[in-house]
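Internal ticket - ligand job 194, guanosine-5'-monophosphate:
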Amino acid sequence: MHALEQKILTEGIVLSDQVLKVDAFLNHQIDPKLMQQIGVEFAQRFKAAGISKIVTIEASGIAPAVMAGLELDVPVIFARKYQSLTLKDDLYRSKVFSFTKQTESTIAISKKHIAADDHVLIIDDFLANGHAALALVDLIQQAGATVCGIGIVIEKSFQSGRQLLDEKGFHVESLARVKSLTEGQVTFVREESN
Ligand code: 5GP
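stdout (structure tokens):
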């Protein structure tokens, strides 16, 4: 997605050869127009999949997920990372190893928001090694629901997540595919064209 790649090149900060900071438009300050374009793009790529619900993870997945939900006209659920006094319902829980914090935590969604007949699109801001996406898959499968696709805003293709999700047979769509972050430079995967 050209507008997203341009934004990454102009406003992204390469923190190391493993980590990209995008808090100018996605992870802290949010660019609503770009999020809207992202929602349209996800909707375009998954519109044939019969999606009934979107599941993401707080906090940074929420903005792109809501925009995709608006376009696809379906509800959006975000998995909670923190205990909350208001989250007292029966919960599906899964453990996830955080790439950015390097710690394990538990994420949860309320059983009342997801049913066995749901066809779910997972959306997240980044794909690194695939732990967050697979924890969301686990929550959805505990409900007996179907994972129809995984939409990622920024995939770091040099890490293991994409290959893992492909091998498990998921339909993955990433709007920007980062090939490398070496020497402070972002380079993108260029799809083969005939
Ligand atoms: P994974 O679970 O695929 O290893 O990592 C994905 C999760 O870690 C995402 O939910 C995202 O929040 C975070 N993450 C992974 N890589 C990066 C990165 O380079 N920059 C930022 N800001 N977050 C990342």
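Auto-summary: The two ends are 19 Å apart (CA to CA). Residues 2-187 form a domain with the Rossmann fold fold (CATH 3.40.50.2020).
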